[in-house]
Automatic annotation (TrEMBL):
Organism name: Hyphomonas jannaschiana VP2
One Pfam family recorded for the sequence: MRM3-like_sub_bind
Entries under SUPFAM superfamilies matching the protein: alpha/beta knot, L30e-like
Lineage: Bacteria, Pseudomonadati, Pseudomonadota, Alphaproteobacteria, Hyphomonadales
Protein's UniProt name: RNA methyltransferase
One term of GO molecular function: RNA methyltransferase activity
Domain called RNA 2-O ribose methyltransferase substrate binding: residue spans: 35-111
Length: 273
C-alpha cells in the first residue's frame, strides 16, 4: 500500500525555510537547486529529465487526478513529496497568489563544448548575451530562443542568474528546454572562432540594417548589456554590426524586444525551418 505524502504546517520547518531561501542567489549556489512554480513548469522539467529534489503541493488540491499523477511522477524521479497549506505556498514563493504546485530541481552546469553546433543540413543559431543584468529579460530571451528553435543561449561575462525566480518565471518553462552555458568573453570568442561561427551584433554603431545581413550561415547573435551595450573591443571582434531601424521618440528598444527581432529575422531567412 502506498504511503501518503508527509504534511508540513509550520513556516519554521527546516524544509520550508530552505525553500524560502532559494530566493537568494547565495542559497541557490550553495544548494545547487532552483524553484519552479506551477504544474505546467514542473511537468516540463520532468519531461526533459531534469532531476527534481522536492515537490510541494497545496493540500487542498492534492487529490485532483492530474496533481496526484504529477506527484507520482515526481516521486518516481526521486523527489520528496510534501503537502502544505496554501499560506505556506505563499511564504515559499514570496507571492500572495502562489500556484498550487512548486518543485525544486537540480541546476545544470553546461559548458560551451557541450552546446551542439549543427553544420548541416540546418546551420546553427546561437544567442549570446553580454553581461545581461535583468532576469526578466533573460527569461524572456530564453523563451524567444526556444520558440525560434535556436541551438543555445550563451551568458557572457557577469550575467544575472538564469535560475532566479524572475528568470524562471519569465522563461515560461523554456529554462528546461533551451540549452544555456556561461563563459568568460575570452572563452566565448575562442569557442566561436574554433567552431567557425559568425558573430553578428546589434549595435548603435551598426553599419547595415539587421534584415540585410546574411544570417543563414552558422551564426551567433550577440546582444549587449541593457545600459552600456557592447564594449568597443567586443564590437571590434564581431564579423558584422547591424542596426535595427527605429523611428519616433524612443531612442532604444528593450533588450528582450531587440533580441526577438534579431532571432526571428534569422529564422525568417531560414524559411522558418
Amino acid at each position: 500500500m502506498k504511503r501518503p505524502p508527509e504534511t508540513l504546517t509550520s513556516p519554521s520547518n527546516p524544509l520550508i525555510k530552505s525553500l524560502k531561501g532559494l530566493e537568494r542567489k547565495k542559497e541557490r549556489q550553495s544548494s545547487g537547486l532552483f524553484l519552479a512554480e506551477g504544474a505546467r513548469l514542473v511537468e516540463q522539467g520532468l519531461a526533459n529529465n531534469w532531476q527534481p529534489d522536492t515537490l510541494v503541493v497545496a493540500a487542498a488540491v492534492a487529490d485532483r487526478p492530474h496533481i496526484a499523477a504529477l506527484a507520482d511522477k515526481a516521486e518516481a524521479a526521486g523527489a520528496r513529496v510534501v503537502l502544505v497549506p496554501e499560506r505556506l505556498m505563499s511564504k515559499i514563493t514570496h507571492k500572495d497568489n502562489a500556484q498550487s504546485v512548486i518543485a525544486t530541481f537540480r541546476q545544470r552546469q553546461v559548458t560551451l563544448d557541450q552546446l551542439e553546433v549543427r553544420y548541416s543540413p540546418r546551420k546553427s543559431l546561437f544567442v549570446a548575451l553580454y553581461e545581461v543584468r535583468d532576469p526578466g529579460n533573460l527569461g524572456t530571451i530564453l523563451r524567444t530562443a526556444d520558440c525560434a528553435g535556436a541551438d543555445g543561449v550563451i551568458l557572457v561575462g557577469t550575467c544575472c542568474d538564469p535560475y532566479s525566480f524572475e528568470a524562471v518565471r519569465a522563461s515560461m518553462g523554456s529554462v528546461f528546454d533551451m540549452p544555456f552555458a556561461g563563459a568568460s568573453y575570452e572563452d566565448f570568442e575562442a569557442w566561436r572562432r574554433k567552431s567557425g561561427i559568425a558573430s553578428v551584433a546589434a549595435s548603435v554603431n551598426g553599419t547595415v540594417r539587421h534584415d540585410l545581413v546574411n544570417l543563414q550561415q552558422d551564426t551567433v547573435i550577440l546582444m549587449g548589456n541593457e545600459q552600456a551595450g557592447l564594449p568597443p573591443a567586443v564590437e571590434a571582434d564581431c564579423d558584422q554590426l547591424v542596426l535595427i531601424p527605429m523611428r519616433g521618440g524612443a531612442d532604444s528598444l528593450n533588450l528582450a524586444q531587440a533580441t526577438a527581432i534579431m532571432v526571428y529575422e534569422a529564422w525568417r531567412q531560414r524559411d522558418f525551418q
